[in-house]
C-alpha cells in the first residue's frame, strides 16, 4: 500500500469510529469503502495495474471527494451535491444494503467521472494508447470489487442487515447480479468521463451544465434503488449507471 493510500485509509478509520459508536447509518457505506480501499492497496502492492502510480493518485483523489462530502454534511447538509444529500439524508431505518447502494450511486455515478477527469488531463485524451491504459486500469478495479462481494455481504449482516429466507435463497443470484451491474456502471462512467471532457474543452459554462446534468441523473437514480423488490437483480437487468 502506498503512503498516500495508507493516509486515506487512516482518514477513513478516524471518521468511521465515531459513526460506529453512534450507530450512524453513514457507517455502512464508509465501512464498505474502507475495506475496499484496503483491498485496492493490496492490489497495488501486488502489481495488478499497468500504471500503479496513476491508480494510487486516482484512488486518493476519488476517495477524497466522498470523504470531503461526508465531513461537510455533518455541519452543512445542504452544502453537498444532490446525490450525497439523498444518501446522507436517507431514512436511518433502511437496511444497511440500501445505505451502501445510495453511497455507491453518489460515489460511482456522480463522483467517479469527476475524479477520472481530474487525473486524466486534456493532453492524455489526445493519446489513444495512453487513454487505453487508463481505461484498462479503470476496469481492473472491477476484479477487486468482485472479490469483495461475498465478504461485504457477511459484513453487512454484522452491521444489522436482516436476512429473510428469500434473501438467503437469492444470495448467489444477488452476488452474480452485483458483478454484472458493477461492470455495466463502469462502462457508463467511462462514457460520462468522455462527455465531461468534451464539455471541459468547450469552457467552464459548458462543463457546469454537463456536470449539473450528471448530478440530476444521479439523484434521480435513488428512487429506483429504494423501490421494493429484488433490487440487485433489477439493477443487473436494467442497469445501475446513469448516462449524460
Pick out its properties:
mainly alpha; 10 helices; 244 residues
- What is the 3D form? globular
Strand content: under 5%
Helical segment tally? 10
The number of E-state strands comes to: 0
> Which sequence of SSEs, written as H and E, runs from N to C?
HHHHHHHHHH
Structural class: mainly alpha
The largest sheet is: none
Percent of residues in helical segments? over 70%
Low-pLDDT segments? 163-171
Kindly provide the radius of gyration, computed on alpha-carbon positions and rounded to a whole number of angstroms.
17 Å
Tally of discrete structural domains: 1
Q: How far apart lie the N and C ends?
A: 34 Å
Average pLDDT, rounded to a whole number, is 90
What is shown here, in short?
With 244 residues, the chain is mainly α. The protein has helices spanning 3-22, 26-45, 52-75, 82-88, 96-119, 122-125, 128-158, 165-202, 204-225, 231-238.
Describe the structure in your own words.
- The chain is mainly alpha-helical and 244 residues long.
- The chain has one domain (3-238).
- Helices cover 81% and strands 0% of the residues.
- The protein has ten helices and no strands.
- The protein has helices spanning 3-22, 26-45, 52-75, 82-88, 96-119, 122-125, 128-158, 165-202, 204-225, 231-238.
- Pfam families: DUF5995.
Set down the secondary structure blueprint.
Blueprint (H helix, E strand, L loop, with lengths): L2 H20 L3 H20 L6 H24 L6 H7 L7 H24 L2 H4 L2 H31 L6 H38 L1 H22 L5 H8 L6
Amino acid at each position: 500500500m502506498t503512503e498516500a493510500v495508507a493516509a486515506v485509509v487512516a482518514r477513513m478509520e478516524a471518521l468511521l469510529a465515531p459513526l460506529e459508536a453512534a450507530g450512524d447509518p453513514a457507517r455502512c457505506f464508509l465501512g464498505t469503502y474502507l475495506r475496499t480501499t484496503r483491498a485496492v492497496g493490496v492490489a497495488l502492492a501486488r502489481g495488478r495495474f499497468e500504471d500503479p502510480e496513476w491508480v494510487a493518485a486516482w484512488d486518493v483523489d476519488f476517495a477524497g471527494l466522498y470523504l470531503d462530502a461526508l465531513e461537510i454534511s455533518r455541519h452543512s447538509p445542504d452544502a453537498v451535491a444532490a446525490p450525497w444529500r439523498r444518501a446522507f439524508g436517507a431514512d436511518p431505518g433502511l437496511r444497511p444494503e440500501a445505505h451502501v447502494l445510495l453511497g455507491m450511486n453518489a460515489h460511482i455515478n456522480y463522483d467517479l467521472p469527476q475524479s477520472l477527469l481530474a487525473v486524466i488531463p486534456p493532453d492524455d485524451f489526445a493519446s489513444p494508447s495512453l487513454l487505453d491504459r487508463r481505461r484498462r486500469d479503470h476496469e481492473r478495479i472491477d476484479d477487486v470489487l468482485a472479490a469483495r462481494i461475498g465478504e461485504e455481504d457477511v459484513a453487512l449482516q454484522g452491521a444489522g442487515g436482516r436476512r429473510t429466507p428469500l434473501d438467503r435463497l437469492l444470495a448467489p443470484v444477488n452476488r452474480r447480479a452485483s458483478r454484472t451491474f458493477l461492470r455495466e456502471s463502469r462502462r457508463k462512467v467511462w462514457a460520462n468521463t468522455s462527455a465531461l471532457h468534451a464539455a471541459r474543452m468547450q469552457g467552464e459554462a459548458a462543463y457546469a451544465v454537463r456536470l449539473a446534468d450528471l448530478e440530476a441523473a444521479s439523484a434521480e437514480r435513488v428512487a429506483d434503488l429504494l423501490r421494493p423488490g429484488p433490487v440487485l437483480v433489477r439493477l443487473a437487468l436494467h442497469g445501475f449507471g446513469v448516462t449524460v
